[in-house]
Please model this.
Amino acid sequence: MRIAVTGSIATDHLMTFPGRFADQLVADQLHTVSLSFLVDNLDVRRGGVAANICFGMGQLGTGPVLVGAAGSDFDEYRAWLDRHGVDTGSVRISEVLHTARFVCTTDADHNQIGSFYTGAMSEARLIELKAVADRVGGLDLVSIGADDPEAMLRHTEECRSRGIAFAADFSQQIARMDGDEIRILLDGATYLFSNEYEKGLIESKTGWTDEEILGKVGHRVTTLGARGVRIEQAGQETIEVGCPEEETKADPTGVGDAFRAGFLSGLAWGVSLERAAQVGCMLATLVIETVGTQEYTLRRTHFMDRFTKAYGHDAAAEVRAHLR
Model:
């Protein structure tokens, strides 16, 4: 199964604040917030939702196709992704803009404040999926992640017109989208990804109920933080999968991307939705134990030992047959 992942390609500048953001907020002065946090450290990491997802899929051996736009400063990043099993041949390189950049501060409670510079991402709207499909010999699924909004709309409409199955995954862009845009982007999606808060926001902005949305998408995949994930389909029994036990909680950045990488890899393998969700939760657990979104190492034996402990021998035997 050939899966393309569209979305942002960025570098992450991650900082840690040793206190709590909540202690610095004055309830009756929130309309004039002016704060500066003295942070302990700075880590510059590779990131962007599409690149993060593709990195995880590459680690699992499913050969994802990365679709997005980057700047002329992308050469080193491209080499990194190529080494980790990602097809970067469809990345557009801007002649004038830098690769997008995410700047994020995390406090002692793992709350986050972040800013995102779009840069070359604005040129993603110029990418045609037909050219991508022709280059790789066809596409079975396109995961449309947070990106330039015009690019997200173009990719969605092209998938519909060409009969390519797609997954709608708004994540960070949902805050700036209105109800009309969200309705266009999710209608007809084979999969709709969101976390619990985004789920409510989607319903509020579209004016559609949960049942109405389930009637417009194939599957609704809602991540539940430490409680795992819920998968719903109209007329079908809900699937719920819990998370493996964490060894430590180092950094929540990129956990949702890792879940998607594991879930999409499970789809590529052809395993059940429950099994795909279990792979996603296991990969997400590895990421939360690591600072940075692409700094973890997937060691097959270690991965399978923990997967077996969390989900049992039968589930592990099925996954082991696919994991390279």
